[in-house]
Amino acid sequence: MRTTLSSRVLVAVAGAGSAATLAGAFAFQYIGGMAPCALCLWQRWPHAAAVLIMVLALLVPNRWLMALGAVAALTTSGIAGFHMGVEYGWWQGLQSCSGGSIAGISMNDLLNPNAAVAAPVRCDEVPWSLFGLSMAGWNMVLSLGLTGVWIMAARRA
Fold first, then answer.
1. Long-range contacts formed by 73-76: CB under 8 A, 24+ apart
2. Are 136 and 78 in contact (CB under 8 A)?
3. Is the dihedral of CA 142, 71, 19, 83 positive or negative?
4. Which of 32, 42, 122, 144 could lock 28 by a disulfide, CB 3.0 to 4.6 Å apart?
């Protein structure tokens, strides 16, 4: 007897995977004290969309919603892949990600040498890695896997 996972179970797994990835990112930020860079923040939005799509697809099972979930997961994987390339110096990052912006800093603080002004978080530095992969690298790999789960769900719907 062959048992296959239903599309609803696969949707739940894919959406829960995005929710867990977001929870991990927030844990690194708020528990671990690792402020995210601009590309890190961009990677979170498609995961949030995938969680919303999961809720909708569980309420109203629809192949197109599941395909949209795959697009969301693939989008975050693409952003993460770009970010990983920036971190490892394979290509240039965005101007806003590697320079020291002074936006939001008052003139008094700029002129005061004793003012505590936080350094901007750079996208081209690897603040944490595991087995040679940065957080962006792990997000890329996990999100590619989630893309596959969304596709399997859509094919079974």
1. 73/14, 73/18, 73/46, 73/47, 73/143, 73/144, 73/146, 73/147, 73/150, 74/143, 74/144, 74/147, 75/46, 76/18, 76/43, 76/44, 76/45, 76/46, 76/47, 76/50, 76/139, 76/143
2. no
3. positive
4. 32
**SS3 call for 134:** strand
Single pTM value for the model: 0.80
Instruction: Give the C-alpha separation, 92 to 147, whole Å.
Output: 26
Q: Going residue by residue through the chain (157 aa), what tens digit of pLDDT does each one get?
A: 444 679 999 999 999 999 999 999 999 899 988 888 888 899 999 999 999 999 999 999 899 999 999 999 999 999 999 999 888 888 887 776 755 555 556 666 556 666 555 556 776 777 777 788 888 999 999 999 999 999 999 998 8
- As a whole number of angstroms, the distance between CA 124 and CA 36 comes to 12
Amino acid at 11: V
